[in-house]
Design a protein that fits this description.
Layout lengths: L1 H30 L9 H10 L1 H35 L1 H16 L2 H12 L4 H24 L3 H9 L4 H38 L5 H10 L3 H29 L1 H12 L1
Helix pairs in contact: 1-10, 2-10, 3-4, 3-6, 3-8, 3-9, 5-6, 5-8, 6-8, 8-9, 8-10, 9-10
Length: 260
């Protein structure tokens, strides 16, 4: 049933915009807005088809940066959350610095990272990781701390080890909180990759958007933005599918409780 709901949402994500694009096409043809201000959707589509090789290669670069940054930031976020959960003193020491990384505008850090890390993929990955770290850490820590005390008492009565506590109680309980954080993190990771490409890049959708706007190639600029939107939707639904398959046991547990 949940897969059917996800497919329905994907359909709505594409059919509703297509209908709105059709209305926009009709509206722009009626009022005759200059093409350099707002191009016709049909012209943008033609440019995307003609420039599909360029769009694909730049999209692939942005996807790689965002995916690596997301995985790195999520891993660090989970590690920090587990560390803060088990060691309160570590949380007191490190949490202010973690919060500081979120206060600073990432675009102001980009030139510094450029000096430190060079012009390659690494600065964009670091910015993506910094942006995706925080929601994962907060949600994971909330999930660990929301473990029902009755289950903790049960594990204590069974003399469970620390590893058993974590692997069979705390971590499974935190997953339902972790995935909303991962959904936010994947969106922020894409934003981080684009921010890095705006500051310094020779490849990627952020770079393509900048170059096409400087060249007043408005059709290609809108095409790159549409490609970025498609990537964002794709990444979001990939995380949602992982959530569906990984949390299947929790849905089965809820069904069994209702039957009882």
């Amino acid at each position: 049933m949940r897969i059917k709901n996800i497919l329905e949402r994907i359909t709505c994500f594409f059919l509703v915009p297509l209908f709105l694009i059709f209305l926009l096409e009709v509206f722009l043809r009626i009022i005759k807005v200059p093409l350099y201000v707002l191009p016709l959707p049909s012209e943008v589509l033609k440019t995307m088809i003609n420039s599909r090789g360029i769009l694909f290669s730049h999209s692939l670069a942005t996807m790689n940066e965002a995916a690596v940054g997301f995985l790195l930031g999520s891993a660090i976020g989970v590690i920090l959350a587990v560390g803060f959960f088990y060691f309160k003193s570590l949380e007191k020491i490190l949490s202010p610095y973690v919060f500081l990384t979120q206060i600073f505008p990432k675009i102001s850090l980009a030139p510094i990272l450029l000096i430190w890390l060079g012009f390659g993929m690494l600065p964009k990955v670091v910015i993506s990781a910094l942006m995706s770290l925080f929601p994962v850490m907060v949600n994971m820590l909330t999930g660990l701390r929301s473990t029902p005390t009755i289950r903790v008492d049960l594990f204590n009565s069974l003399f469970a080890s620390k590893w058993q506590f974590f692997l069979k109680l705390y971590f499974p309980n935190s997953l339902i909180f972790l995935f909303p954080g991962l959904k936010s993190a994947i969106l922020l990771a894409i934003v981080g990759a684009i921010v890095g490409e705006f500051v310094s890049a020779t490849f990627g959708l952020g770079y393509l958007i900048q170059v096409s706007s400087y060249q007043t190639n408005i059709n290609l600029c809108f095409g790159a933005i549409i490609a970025l939107l498609i990537i964002t939707i794709l990444f979001y639904f990939v995380v949602e599918m992982f959530e569906y398959f990984i949390l299947r046991w929790q849905r089965l547990e809820c069904v069994n409780e209702r039957r009882m």
